[in-house]
């Protein structure tokens, strides 16, 4: 009990948290979860309750048992009663009740049965709650079920559990064999392959042995019913019934307590001990009553009487078996575990036969779960237990290998000949190849869509394919190796030619250099010096005069520009004054017009309400008349009875007739008056109709005149006027309906008149009531005429208001035209028109809407301002260039002056040195040659070793000084050189030890090297003068040539040894780059031209890192920052920004170029932030990247400028994408029928509309997806930041939704249920595209919500109040105007759909009145979401970036 609670590799805490999350996801609250955990804990504690034996016949449980206390506390039970009835049972007879104690094994079984009972109830309850959580309102037709079963089980000791599992596996294996055989048969029949019946093992005898009548389970249940039944008696019955009678049942030789069953996989020996008790699984009534009285509500509910039955599939699904399944006997044994298991297995087999099963066989490589361990015996045992070997045998008897024709063609295409590949039909090609490769035609069969092979044929084809591939590889290797050897030979030959060329050139140079040539070169240098000085002085004077002239003109230009700017501001103020006044007046007029419309609608609603009240009163009158008619029928019967009495009272009748005539005359007069009144009403009706027709014609003429004068940009107002016309037509229709109702009232009056005449003739008593009714009707007719007069007055007021508004518009147009004429007189109109677009010219030609005219003027002034701004920028650029030239010339002059002073100082030092050098003039040529050798060595070492070469050069200079000293001693040169060689070898050994000392003295050596370079230049200058003195000494120089050659050889050996030492040091510490690019000031324009203006995106984005130009520019910025040169840095940043602006301006319509430079601008901006030195941007940097931060300048202002440039590029980028995709949206989303047969019908009564494009078939939904994919791939290839990509996709999806929805509002023929299904399908394609591109987090799907709700609104039922409420709750993204528009425009395509009734529209409108949303119908397709540029640090190290040769940036050097 207890033991170790830790399992290796299992995290109980994580699994518990995962379980709680799953419960929460299914809607289970924390209280419910705690209840479940309480019951589980109680079950565990119940299993740990200790039961002790008291003698042989009794047992007991201590009330102090901690587990029992916890169990009772969790479930709210009395611990005493639980302890009592765990060890005792109650037996109820007809006469008395007996309490019988239980032995310890019986008590343990009762305890375990109770725990299993509680757990079974809990499990069923959780399953029911999960099914309720997953259930939806519609009808369920199908379901998916997962059956997880390990398979056949055989252990050392097998009991009742293994027997039930193996019984279930027998049933499942039988179903699996039948299913596999059926699939194989269907496959051959579908492909028309001749086949023969395949025999397979049928395990029905084993199943009959277990579940048939008088089988093992039935004998077990029978034995359980006996009060003294034991396992031994049951086993003896099995021996008697099946031993030597059934070959599948055996008795073990060495055991009398077990039996053997031959299952489909293997023989299994079962121990009979515990079979009866496990089958009974008895839970005693007293324990159930104790749990039923639990204070814990969930536990008490488990054990209530008559619980609701739980269906395994839910009540909504009806599963009908496709195969007859043998039902178990239902007479007896329903309460045992075996009968329950057999019933459950019956339901499972019924479900499997009614569904389409799929099988997954899991095989364990070993029982120890070790890696790379394969137990073949265990694998074969599992394959046999799962029935896989039987399945393989069934499949292998026919054609186990199958290929489709397309797969075979693509796999074995390399085995086909050219003649076979020339066939157009791939099926015929496959047949021809197989006839050629496999001679035996019985080894394969051709089906309709597949080729079937017998065992071993696919392996043979694979061997042929590998042989073919091997031969092809040999041929390819042969040609590649030959090409490589040819390339190596050409490279070696080219190197040999270069070496020969340089060697021969060096020999020619040595022969050509003489004293005369040196003298001539020195003279030429002096002449060049004086000539260049003269040219520079002339150039300086010319630039000085030009600078003064430019300054004068520039200052005049700036003064004139300042004056023009002040004048423009003054005019703009005047224009703003008039425009704002006009806007205020227009706002007031719109408000007044809106108030009048509201008043008109309110009065019309009041009239409609009054008419409805009158209709109600008329219905009441009709009901009264029907009641009078019923009274009349009764009176007629009375009259028939009283005919005899009437004959007797003839005299009285005559008097009554006279009175009736008088009354009849009076009634006829009143009826005549009513007829006259009716005729007057009819004339008034005709007049109203004529007036309405005249008004509609006048309105149509006015609208025609207005539409001729409006621009394309005034489409919104046209739509509003169309809406007004439609509303007016609706009102006229309402008026006509009212008139019809009046006609019906008149007809009703006529009918009433006839009825009144009959009633007067038949009965005089009802005449008084009829008079009152006629009076009331006449009053109602008068009120109707009054209502019509009020309607006419309201219409007249509306017409007056419209006339007043039009007159005000004309006045404002005239005033605005005068203002525009005055403003345009001061500008060149032709220039302005040339700069304006066609849309702007259309705006200027509008019918006088002041706002659009004012917008046109504003745009014209913006064009002029941009023109002046561009001229200003050009002038400023020219001035900056001239200033730069002036500064550059002044710097050169200063430099020349400094050189002149240095030259004078050098000349003075040369004069002092001449006296000393005259004595040693014989050694000058030796010095010169040694210096040239040292310079060559210096260049080689600088290329290879950078800083360390400078250190080694200091040593070499010391060596050269020692050589000079040795040359001074002419007598002992060879001995001195040998001594120096020994010293050099010793110093070579000490070089590695003294590297650190050399690093400390590097600064001092650099200074010495600079001074020595000056001395070397002095030597070169003095060489030409001293050649005259050296002519006499040429003979001695020839004598010393041999000695000089020996010295040169020694210097070479020393340099080689020093190079080896440096190589050893450099191998221990490789050279590192600083992440900078060195460039010259004059190369800045060339850098911008090659890197920005002339760069093509297609060559950059293929194999290079994203944002490579941005990184190169930033490395140049780092170099300028390291020099602490503010002018250089400012010039580079300004040139970069202007270059980006220029390349974007030149390629405004090029999507790839805009995407490329948007990406590079963002990368450049991120580099400036990442290496700015600010802590918020340095969080993700490596320590080495932090060393590369800018040290001297703060570029935050330039970051803001670059951010503005990036925003401009992004807006143009979005405009180009919208321009490309907008013509495709309506044909692809609305007009194209991706669901064939859904929208095949057209609504009746509509003409064929023109499509949004010339050819609708050219664009489909696939076109939209292809265009989106093109945009996405281009952005990704150019390295655009993923966040920017998501924002761009969100903008595109908003455009798609807005354009589609606007077109849906304007096209009534698209508002149908089937078109809604089409739109929903297209939206699902877009959502699938987002999922494929991993853009679910871009919020693009939410932008399609209005369109999705519109599609749903077209499909939903629109009849009842619940439908109206559902529309109000679901359509939250659509405004009230848009919902009403869709409902009014809904057009049924066929007889199965119905038009939306006006009453339903009014119901929806009444629900939507509480919303406070926009009254605008159309969505703004020009709306742009706010863009944000995320900071993404660059992962690329600046030191590792290399410049491709295709960029043509060879003038940049990596430091």
Q: What gross morphology would you assign?
A: flat
Instruction: Report the sheet-strand fraction.
Output: under 5%
The residue ranges in which pLDDT falls below 50 over 5 or more consecutive positions are: 308-334, 826-833, 835-854, 917-925, 1005-1017, 1054-1071, 1237-1257
Helix share bin: 55-70%
Radius of gyration: 53 Å
Structural category: mainly alpha
Query: Largest sheet, order of strands side by side?
Result: 5-6-7
Q: Distance between the terminal alpha carbons, to the nearest Å?
A: 74 Å
**Major beta sheet summary:** 3 strands, antiparallel
What is the arithmetic mean of pLDDT?
75
Characterise this structure.
The protein has 1455 residues and is mainly α. It is 69% helix and 3% strand. It has 48 helices and twelve strands. The strands form five sheets. The chain has a three-stranded antiparallel sheet with strand order 5-6-7. A hairpin with a 3-residue loop joins strand 9 and strand 10. Helix 2 packs antiparallel against helix 3 and helix 20 (515-641) packs antiparallel against helix 24 (767-825). It is flat. 19% of the residues are buried. Residues 308-334, 826-833, 835-854, 917-925, 1005-1017, 1054-1071 and 1237-1257 have low confidence and may be disordered.
Provide the fold topology:
Elements: H1 12-25, H2 30-47, E1 52-54, E2 58-60, H3 66-75, H4 79-86, E3 88-92, E4 97-101, H5 104-134, H6 160-191, H7 204-211, H8 216-225, H9 231-242, E5 249-250, E6 258-262, E7 267-271, H10 275-280, H11 285-292, H12 297-302, H13 337-354, H14 376-386, H15 388-396, E8 401-404, H16 405-411, H17 418-421, H18 426-437, E9 444-446, E10 450-453, H19 457-512, H20 515-641, H21 643-648, H22 650-709, H23 715-762, H24 767-825, H25 829-835, H26 838-844, H27 850-918, H28 924-945, H29 947-968, H30 973-991, H31 995-1000, H32 1002-1030, H33 1034-1039, H34 1041-1068, E11 1077-1078, H35 1084-1093, H36 1108-1123, H37 1126-1146, H38 1151-1170, H39 1183-1187, H40 1196-1231, H41 1261-1277, H42 1282-1306, H43 1313-1332, H44 1340-1343, H45 1345-1355, H46 1361-1370, H47 1376-1385, H48 1398-1408, E12 1453-1454
Antiparallel strand pairs: 1-2, 3-4, 5-6, 6-7, 8-10, 9-10, 11-12
Helix pairs in contact: 2-3, 2-5, 6-7, 6-13, 6-15, 8-9, 16-18, 20-23, 20-24, 20-27, 20-32, 22-23, 23-24, 24-27, 26-27, 28-29, 28-34, 29-30, 29-32, 29-34, 30-34, 35-37, 36-37, 36-38, 37-40, 38-40, 40-41, 40-42, 41-42, 42-45, 43-45, 46-48, 47-48
């Amino acid at each position: 009990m207890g033991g170790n609670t830790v399992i290796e590799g299992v995290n109980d805490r994580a699994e518990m948290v995962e379980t709680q999350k799953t419960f929460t996801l299914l809607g289970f609250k924390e209280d419910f979860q705690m209840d479940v955990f309480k019951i589980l804990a109680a079950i565990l504690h119940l299993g740990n309750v200790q039961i002790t034996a008291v003698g042989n016949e009794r047992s007991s449980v201590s009330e102090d048992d901690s587990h029992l206390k916890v169990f009772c506390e969790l479930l709210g039970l009395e611990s005493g009663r639980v302890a009592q009835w765990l060890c005792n049972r109650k037996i109820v007879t007809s006469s008395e009740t007996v309490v019988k104690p239980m032995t310890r094994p019986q008590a343990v079984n009762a305890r375990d049965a109770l725990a299993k009972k509680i757990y079974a109830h809990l499990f069923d309850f959780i399953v029911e709650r999960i099914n309720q959580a997953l259930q939806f309102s519609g009808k369920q037709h199908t379901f998916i079920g997962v059956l997880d079963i390990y398979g056949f089980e055989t252990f050392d000791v097998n009991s009742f559990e293994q027997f039930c599992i193996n019984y279930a596996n027998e049933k499942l294996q039988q179903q699996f064999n039948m299913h596999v055989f059926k699939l194989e048969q269907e496959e051959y029949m579908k492909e028309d392959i001749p086949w023969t019946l395949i025999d397979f093992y049928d395990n029905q005898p084993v199943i009959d042995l277990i579940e048939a009548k008088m089988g093992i389970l039935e004998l077990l249940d029978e034995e359980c019913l006996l009060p003294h039944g034991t396992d031994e008696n049951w086993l003896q019955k099995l021996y008697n019934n099946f031993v030597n009678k059934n070959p599948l049942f055996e008795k073990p030789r060495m055991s009398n307590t077990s039996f053997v069953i031959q299952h489909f996989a293997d023989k299994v020996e079962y121990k009979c001990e515990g079979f009866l008790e496990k089958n009974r699984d008895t839970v005693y009534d007293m324990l159930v009553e104790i749990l039923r009285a639990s204070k814990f509500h969930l536990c008490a509910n488990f054990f209530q009487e008559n619980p609701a039955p739980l269906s395994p599939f839910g009540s909504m699904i009806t599963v009908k078996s496709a195969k007859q399944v043998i039902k178990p006997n239902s007479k007896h044994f329903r309460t045992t575990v075996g009968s329950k298991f057999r019933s459950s297995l019956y339901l499972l087999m019924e479900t499997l036969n009614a569904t389409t099963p799929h099988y997954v066989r899991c095989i364990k490589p070993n029982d120890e779960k070790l890696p790379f361990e394969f137990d073949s015996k265990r694998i074969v045992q599992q394959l046999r237990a799962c029935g896989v070997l039987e399945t393989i045998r069934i499949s292998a008897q026919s054609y186990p290998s199958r290929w489709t024709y397309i797969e075979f063609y693509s796999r074995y295409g390399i085995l086909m000949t050219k003649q076979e590949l020339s066939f157009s039909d791939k099926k015929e090609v496959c047949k021809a190849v197989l006839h050629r490769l496999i001679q035996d035609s019985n080894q394969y069969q051709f089906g309709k869509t597949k080729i079937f092979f017998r065992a071993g044929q696919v392996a043979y084809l694979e061997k042929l394919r590998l042989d073919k591939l091997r031969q092809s590889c040999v041929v390819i290797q042969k040609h590649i190796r030959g090409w490589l050897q040819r390339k190596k030979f050409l490279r070696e030959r080219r190197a040999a030619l270069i070496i020969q060329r340089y060697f021969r050139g060096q020999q020619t140079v040595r022969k050509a250099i003489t004293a005369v040539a040196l003298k001539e070169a020195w003279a030429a240098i002096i002449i060049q010096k004086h000539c260049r000085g003269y040219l520079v002085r002339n150039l300086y004077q010319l630039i000085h005069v030009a600078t003064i002239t430019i300054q004068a003109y520039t200052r005049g230009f700036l003064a004139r520009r300042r004056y023009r700017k002040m004048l423009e501001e003054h005019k703009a103020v005047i224009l703003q004054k008039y425009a704002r006044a006009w806007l205020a007046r227009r706002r007031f007029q719109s408000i007044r017009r809106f108030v009048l419309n509201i008043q008109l609608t309110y009065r019309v609603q009041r009239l409609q309400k009054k008419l409805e009240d009158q209709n109600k009163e008329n219905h009441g009158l009709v009901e009264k008349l029907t009641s009078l008619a019923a009274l009349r029928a009764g009176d007629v019967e009375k009259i028939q009875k009283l005919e005899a009495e009437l004959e007797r009272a003839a005299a009285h009748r005559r008097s009554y007739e006279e009175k009736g005539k008088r009354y009849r005359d009076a009634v006829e007069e009143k009826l005549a008056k009513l007829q006259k009144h009716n005729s007057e009403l009819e004339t008034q009706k005709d007049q109203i109709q004529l007036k309405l027709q005249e008004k509609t014609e006048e309105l149509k003429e006015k609208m025609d005149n207005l539409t001729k004068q409006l621009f394309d940009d005034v489409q919104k107002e046209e739509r509003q006027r169309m809406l007004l016309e439609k509303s007016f037509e609706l009102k006229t229709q309402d008026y006509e309906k009212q008139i019809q109702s009046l006609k019906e009232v008149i007809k009703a009056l006529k009918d009433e008149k006839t009825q009144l005449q009959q009633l007067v003739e038949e009965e005089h008593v009802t005449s008084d009531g009829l008079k009152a009714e006629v009076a009331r009707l006449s009053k109602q007719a008068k009120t109707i005429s009054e209502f019509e007069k009020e309607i006419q007055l309201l219409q007249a007021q509306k017409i007056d208001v419209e006339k007043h508004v039009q007159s005000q518009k004309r006045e404002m147009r005239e005033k605005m035209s005068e203002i525009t004429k005055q403003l345009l007189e001061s500008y060149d109109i032709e220039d302005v028109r040339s700069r304006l677009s066609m849309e702007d010219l259309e705006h200027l030609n509008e019918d006088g809407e002041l706002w659009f005219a004012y917008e046109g003027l504003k745009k014209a002034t913006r064009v002029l301002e941009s023109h002046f701004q561009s001229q200003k920028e050009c002038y400023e650029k020219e001035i900056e260039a001239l200033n730069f030239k002036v500064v550059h010339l002044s710097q050169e002059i200063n430099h020349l002056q400094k050189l002149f002073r240095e030259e004078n100082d050098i000349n003075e030092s040369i004069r002092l040195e001449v006296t000393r050098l005259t004595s040693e003039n014989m050694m000058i040529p030796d010095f010169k040659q040694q210096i040239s050798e040292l310079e060559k060595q210096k260049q080689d070492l600088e290329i290879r070793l950078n800083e360390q070469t400078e250190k080694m050069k200091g040593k070499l200079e010391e060596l050269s000084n020692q050589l000079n000293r040795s040359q001074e001693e002419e007598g002992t040169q060879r001995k001195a050189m040998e001594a120096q060689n020994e010293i050099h070898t010793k110093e070579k050994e000490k070089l590695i030890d003294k590297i650190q000392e050399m690093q400390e003295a590097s600064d001092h050596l650099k200074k010495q090297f600079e001074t020595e370079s000056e001395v070397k230049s002095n030597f070169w200058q003095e060489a030409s003068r001293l050649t005259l003195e050296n002519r006499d000494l040429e003979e001695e120089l020839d004598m010393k040539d041999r000695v000089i050659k020996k010295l040169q050889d020694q210097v070479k050996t020393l340099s080689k040894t020093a190079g080896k030492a440096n190589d050893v040091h450099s191998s221990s510490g490789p050279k590192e780059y600083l992440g900078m690019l060195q460039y010259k000031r004059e190369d800045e324009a060339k850098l911008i031209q090659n890197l920005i203006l002339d760069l093509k995106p297609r060559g950059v984005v293929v194999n290079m890192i994203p944002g490579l130009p941005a990184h190169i520019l930033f490395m140049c910025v780092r170099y300028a920052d390291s020099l602490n040169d503010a002018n250089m840095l400012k010039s580079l940043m300004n040139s970069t920004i202007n270059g980006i602006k220029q390349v974007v301006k030149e390629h405004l319509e090029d999507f790839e170029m805009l995407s490329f430079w948007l990406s590079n601008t963002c990368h450049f901006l991120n580099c400036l932030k990442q290496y700015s030195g600010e802590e918020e941007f340095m969080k993700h940097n490596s320590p080495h990247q932090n060393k590369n931060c800018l040290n001297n300048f703060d570029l935050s202002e330039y970051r803001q400028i670059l951010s503005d440039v990036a925003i401009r590029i992004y807006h143009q980028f979005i405009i180009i994408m919208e321009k490309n995709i907008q013509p495709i949206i309506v044909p692809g989303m609305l007009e194209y029928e991706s669901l064939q047969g859904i929208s095949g019908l057209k609504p009746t009564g509509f003409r064929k509309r023109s499509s949004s494009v010339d050819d609708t078939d050219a664009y489909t939904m696939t076109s939209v997806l292809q265009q989106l994919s093109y945009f996405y791939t281009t952005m990704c290839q150019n390295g655009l930041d993923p966040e920017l990509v998501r924002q761009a996709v969100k903008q595109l999806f908003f455009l798609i939704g807005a354009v589609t929805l606007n077109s849906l509002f304007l096209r009534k023929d698209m508002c149908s249920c089937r078109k809604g299904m089409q739109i929903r399908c297209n939206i699902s394609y877009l959502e699938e595209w987002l999922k494929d591109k991993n853009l679910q987090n871009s919020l693009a799907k939410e932008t399609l919500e209005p369109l999705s709700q519109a599609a749903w609104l077209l499909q939903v039922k629109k009849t009842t109040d619940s439908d109206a409420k559902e529309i109000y709750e679901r359509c939250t993204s659509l405004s009230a105007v848009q919902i009403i528009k869709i409902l009014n425009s809904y057009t049924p395509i066929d007889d199965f759909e119905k038009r939306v009734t006006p009453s339903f529209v009014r119901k929806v409108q009444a629900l939507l009145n509480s919303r406070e949303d926009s009254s605008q119908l159309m969505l703004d397709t020009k709306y742009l979401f706010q863009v944000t540029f995320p900071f993404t640090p660059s992962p690329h190290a600046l030191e590792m970036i290399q410049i491709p040769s295709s960029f043509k940036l060879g003038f940049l050097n990596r430091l």
